[in-house]
């Protein structure tokens, strides 16, 4: 998340030759820090963006003045301000899949009684784009915006299996790929995922948790996201996951037709 080095008049040129304003890049980098935490100290932010504390302090003061961040009284800790939520409230529901799919996700949650999530791939990670929490007392809480690795989990298998071949090979060769994962076995699992149209995980990434996931494809058959149902492993046994597969696949099919 570190900003690029500067050029004349506070500008920097990226690899694509386009010139960008450094101060804008830095302000956005600071805001993006809050995808990793809801409450951050100024020193934490400075470390994340690779800038001197005095620079970060000035930029936070500007962002606070505009309502994008809020400083907790008597501390140097910051959180997102109401202006961010005000902007998000004006997202077009016609263009935001997370909002378009929400009613179907709620229907699926009510039908199955488990947490329903939407994941998309961002580089070498997956991001939970939307989630509808289970109403059961014992449930799997799925915070929106969390980033998770691609080498484990049902939705990860979907996002990798349905990626373009060149992208898939790049993922395998990325340094962040877990060395303990048997790549040959993983590739065989992905072949099975493509054949059956869904993926399952049972205590792969998190002890006591299980999930099933299937792709949401647009009308052209391109992957848009992974639909996942997750919950405690004692409820979502391997047998139960198999039973849920047709229901989750059907829901993903309906969600795909909702896209323009």
Kindly list the characteristics that best describe this protein.
single chain; 260 residues; alpha+beta; Arc Repressor Mutant, subunit A; Beta-Lactamase; six-stranded antiparallel beta sheet; three-stranded antiparallel beta sheet; 10 helices; 22% strand; disordered N terminus
Explain the overall architecture.
By secondary structure, the chain is of the alpha+beta class. It folds into two domains: 8-87, Arc Repressor Mutant, subunit A; 97-257, Beta-Lactamase (2-Layer Sandwich). It is 40% helix and 22% strand. The strands form three sheets. It has a six-stranded antiparallel β-sheet with strand order 8-7-6-11-10-9, sandwiched between helices.
